[in-house]
Specification:
The protein has about 300 residues and is mostly beta strands.
Length: about 300
């Protein structure tokens, strides 16, 4: 599923969803005289393999904003959360690489959130994004919505800083998040019709195969095709089918994955590049998982 995780995002038909574990498990430092090494000679805690947060960036182009009640054809956002170390990953909602999944829902960490101050910043070159502290049902989070397209630079490394640092002390991480490249073309082209009267024209099949292609290809991350299936009136979400594979320019979604759903169901189709990563917090050795996506949201329907 799309990892737009920390704040619940919705678009008109009500698409959208939420998004392993990373980190070095070596716990030895250079000071071999310590009977048990919990802090290395620099005062940092070595990587534990546990998860301590999530930082994500997203740029999604909406082919038909009017179809989803969106005010813009470009949705750019960033978010972050930090928490006590946990064994769960934030990314359990994604299909395994090379496979498809139906209604897969992950179980993100539920350990208490950490407060790192009023602001977290993501910076790449002259671009700086400020993520402001908010408190939601799950605790403290940091968000920046309605960003400009230029705030999300493709194939760029973003550093992360939190000058206050709060519970973790001041943070300054270079190359915290790496963003994928964009697209030059996608097929079927009908997915990208921009006019509401022409939208939902791309047929997807319940029998046979559904082939999606894109260019350029060959990114270092993965590619995801996510199909949100709505009833023929578009009033209720019926299911989410998602397939994940290598960024090689083509992906096939078997018709059998869609066979259970009604003919003429309306579809919100997400095609996006996915770049996952992570960095280790010096304060506690936990890995903050990172996610960056670049993609489009198109429309289609299920053939009889």
């Amino acid at each position: 599923m799309v990892v737009l995780l920390l704040s619940a995002c919705t678009l008109g038909l009500d698409p959208y969803g939420d998004t392993a574990g990373l980190g070095d498990t070596d716990v030895q430092d250079d000071d071999t005289s310590d009977p048990v090494d919990t802090v290395d000679d620099s005062g940092n805690v070595p990587a534990t393999g546990l998860v301590g947060g999530l930082v994500e960036m997203s740029r999604l182009q909406v082919a038909c904003p009017a179809c989803f009640g969106a005010s813009s054809d470009m949705l750019v956002s960033a978010s972050a959360a930090f928490h006590e170390p946990a064994s769960q990953t934030w990314f359990g909602g994604y299909a395994d690489r090379g496979s498809c999944a139906v209604n897969r829902v992950g179980s993100p960490p539920t350990t208490p959130r950490l407060d790192v101050g009023d602001w977290v910043y993501l910076t790449s070159g002259s671009t700086s994004i400020g993520l402001r502290r908010t408190v939601g049902a799950s605790g403290v989070m940091y968000t920046a919505d309605n960003l400009a397209e230029a705030d999300f630079r493709s194939t760029a490394a973003y550093g992360l800083s939190a000058p206050d640092g709060g519970d973790l002390g001041p943070l300054d991480v270079s190359d915290a998040v790496t963003t994928p490249q964009g697209f030059t073309s996608i097929t079927p082209a009908e997915l990208l019709y921009t006019n509401a009267n022409a939208a939902f024209s791309a047929p997807l099949y319940r029998n046979g195969s559904n082939v999606f292609t894109w260019s350029g290809s060959g990114g270092s991350g993965d590619f995801v095709v996510q199909i949100d299936v709505y009833d023929p009136n578009g009033s209720a979400l019926v299911a989410t089918v998602a397939c994940r594979g290598p960024d090689n320019g083509a992906m096939t979604v078997p018709g059998s994955m869609l066979a259970a759903y009604p003919a003429y169901s309306l579809l919100a189709v997400y095609l996006y590049r996915l770049e996952l990563g992570g960095f280790v917090l010096d304060a506690n050795g936990a890995t903050v998982e990172t996610s960056a996506i670049v993609g489009v949201i198109g429309t289609g329907y299920l053939e009889p």
